[in-house]
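Good morning N.,

You mentioned wanting to compare the apo and holo forms, so I went ahead and generated the holo version with heme C. This is what I fed in:
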Amino acid sequence: MKHILTSIFAGLLLSASFGAHAGPEEDRKALLDHYRQLMPNIELDDYVYGALAMNPEAKEQYDMVMEFPAYAADVRQGGVHWEKPFRNGNRFSSCFKYGGINAAASYPYFDDKAGRVITFENAINDCLKVNSEPEIKYGSKEMALLTSYAKSLSDNAKVNIKVKSAGALAAYEKGKQFYFQRQGQLNFSCATCHIDNAGKFIRSEQLSMMVGQASHWPEFRAGTEPVTLQARFVGCQKNTRAEPKEINSTEYNNLEYFMSYMSNGLKMQTPVFRK
Ligand code: HEC
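and this is what came out, ligand included:
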């Protein structure tokens, strides 16, 4: 695998200079400029489709699959779970503003009191805890189905991640550092593939751009296999022979925070189909 991968790495090496920028908004703009140069024909709104945005035929097939997705019954099951009253009569919807409508678009956020990033999945478990219900395992099918419904309540809302305090900025910076950190036997960072080489092929797969990657989770891979965003992090780390972190680790939560900020302004859609 190594020679296939190293041979493609010639592109615009944004990752070499990215860290020099002043703050999250400058980072986001630099990244958008980079992708505009790399793929001038793709509209920013279409970045949420990832590699599909680069391949009209695949996008057409995707649109057809999305009309009657095989996972529809699974999402309904998630909806039943979301609506089911707890033993005390409360529901998930009582833990979120406006019953959860558009809530997921502002996650993850940095909680200054707790001193850490709170993902949407953390908020689900916090809700269970305050209502004396058992928590749900991170990365599990149960969490994926529940959030595939709960996050769909934010469909079409724009990703709206804020970095407001020194603590938030530190978490953002750690997420960014992780993204650019070369790791594992192959010595790749996330940025090597999804920034420097976005649009290029690895074997039969075209590499998506990072902007837009965080806006549509869980996905159903092959139409039936629910995968959370952090489970996808594990997949990419394993593929590049790096040691994956635990789902819901501080590292992955900071990474999700950084990546979600980079998708600010793009439309949420949950869940989606991927190959
Ligand atoms: C060797 C190249 C490579 C590296 C390094 C890599 N990935 Fe990926 N990644 C891929 C490929 C190939 C896919 C599937 C095609 C696509 O959607 O880009 C993918 C897909 C993804 C997706 C899903 C995109 C979608 O919309 O379905 C996410 C999220 C992702 N990677 C995040 C990461 C993160 C975070 C890291 C670093 C921890 C990382 N990747 C490192 C190759 C890589």
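The pocket of heme C is lined by residues 5, 50-51, 188, 190, 192-194, 202, 205, 207-208, 213, 219, 232-233, 236-237, 240, 274 (CB under 6 Å).

Happy to go through it together on a call whenever suits you.

Best,
F.
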